[in-house]
Amino acid sequence: MTAVISLDHATRRYGDVVALDDVSLEVPAGELVGLLGPNGAGKSTLLNLVNGLRPTTSGTVRIFGADPRVPASRIQLGTTPQETGLPPTLRVGEVVDFVGGHYPDPMSRDELLSRFGLADLAQRQTGGLSGGQKRRLAVALSIVGRPRLVLLDEPTTGLDVEARRLLWDAVREYHADGATIVVTSHYLEEIEALAQRVVVIGHGHVLADDDLATIVGRVSARHVRLRLAGDARAVVDALPGVVDATADGDRWTILTTDSDAVIRALVTQGVTFSGLEVRGASLEEAFLAMTASDDDGDASSGAHVAPSSSPSDQTQGALR
Ligand SMILES: Nc1ncnc2c1ncn2[C@@H]1O[C@H](COP(=O)(O)OP(=O)(O)OP(=O)(O)O)[C@@H](O)[C@H]1O
């Protein structure tokens, strides 16, 4: 069966920047794929090749077996870019009817708006919607034509927790109807809520492509910070899952794929420590962990002690 999306050695350059570098990827019908990666990784570029907005520099991209640059290939495609503009004086229902009017069998405005919890807002001018409501409407519009393929670029950025969950439910419901969906995100939490398969992109490359559970395990990097007396380098080198370790005096910052195992090892070995903190690592650091464990093939190998760098954007829980 023809894959819904097929990239074959696709490369996209912008001048000197290689935004996507020799990526080959197939997405069969019915998959819900998460594209996860830090800023500038190449996620939007990949979507823009798939939705026909940009040509490849080399290599090929196909949707439903056809060239996405040809408009007729995109009749089964729905997409929401990172930023969308809605005509401020049109009412929500009018926008739905207008966009739906371009498709042979559109969803009714009632069905579409109720799927996204927007039914009460059908008569509201879009200029009077909150930022979160506008975002939900923009994502809703991507499915008004009942597309078989949906591309969502960071669909829930700027949404509060409730609006995010509502939108995730709507996306899952549409996927359950049989659609193939690709969603990009910085948020591991979002990818966990939606995706079955996760493709991790970094520096224009596919770093990993696996089922959700496997990827979540691999990007769950943590920073362990603590004070260790004396020359502790040998102790740190022997700790499990250590990807990176820096010392500022007696204050150590250890990036590890398994913070529980690090703490257990310290306690079991009777190592004296103080000021213990365990924090989520940034997504970039999680990717460092991922590639480091690829490099040595064994996450439990000894520490690589690198020059000090202080992580700036750590967020507890969700990785950004
Ligand atoms: N139109 C463009 N002109 C020049 N460079 C571009 C253009 N679009 C993207 N790039 C560059 O290509 C690289 C990949 O960008 P892209 O937007 O695909 O990443 P991303 O993973 O979607 O990032 P983000 O999560 O920040 O949206 C970046 O270095 C970016 O600066």
TrEMBL record:
Composition-biased stretches (Polar residues): 307-320
Matching Gene3D superfamilies: P-loop containing nucleotide triphosphate hydrolases (3.40.50.300)
GO cellular component term of the entry, any: plasma membrane
Superkingdom as given in the UniProt entry: Bacteria
GO molecular function: ATP binding; ATP hydrolysis activity
KW Nucleotide-binding (keyword) present: yes
Keywords: Antibiotic resistance, ATP-binding, Nucleotide-binding, Transport
Transport as UniProt keyword: yes
Main location: membrane
Location in the cell: Cell membrane
Coiled coil segments of this chain: none
Topological category with respect to the lipid bilayer: Peripheral membrane protein
Residues of the ABC transporter domain: 5-228
Gene Ontology biological process terms from the UniProt entry: response to antibiotic
Region annotation (Disordered) ranges: 294-320
Record protein name field: ABC transporter related
Organism in which the protein naturally occurs: Beutenbergia cavernae (strain ATCC BAA-8 / DSM 12333 / CCUG 43141 / JCM 11478 / NBRC 16432 / NCIMB 13614 / HKI 0122)
Lineage, broadest ranks: Bacteria, Bacillati, Actinomycetota, Actinomycetes, Micrococcales
